[in-house]
């Protein structure tokens, strides 16, 4: 039987890389998939999902008021059977859209794999994440580490000087270098103003030339 999966993590844990690898595995076996991405996220171009390590794929953009069950039914009518649906940046789903994805599983018998952040920079649940945590059949954490070496479970937003930002809109697209994944203990420390974050390099070092 199909299931609704929620793969969650802090920032920069490889969620989109995992999504794209999973979609590739389906295509390698001749199976058709559909990748959904929020319309508000156009960092890599409209209708493109991309990972930090360079993998990318075309995706179907959706708005916050769009019915995802109807969208997927229309896709099947136009292009044929679907074997899996992927949802990137699933924290931006609405409550209704999470319910619609559960209908894709329960009524259409198509597995849905949703990937997203669990909490925002204030430590509060996103709407989509809240209902995925409540309604998903399987919850899987994609792990990453804090600069302290502990497991990172929280996200902080920082300014260009590495100082934590505690106010502002929940959603801020782009500027991944302004978000840092930290442990709960470190989140408390820097939120209280007793620490600062060193912004990390975003790519692997190539080594010294000889």
Describe the structure.
The chain folds into two domains: 4-141, P-loop containing nucleotide triphosphate hydrolases (Rossmann fold, 3-Layer(aba) Sandwich); 154-191, no CATH class. The longest helix has 14 residues, at 15-28. By secondary structure, the protein is an alpha/beta fold. The protein has five helices and eleven strands, in the order βαββββαβαβαββββα. It is elongated, with a radius of gyration of 18 Å. The strands form three sheets. The chain has a six-stranded parallel sheet, with helices on both faces. InterPro entries: P-loop_NTPase, Thymidine_kinase. It is found in: Cytoplasm. ATP binds at residues 9-16, 88-91. Keywords: ATP-binding, Cytoplasm, DNA synthesis, Kinase, Nucleotide-binding, Transferase. The active site is at residue 89.
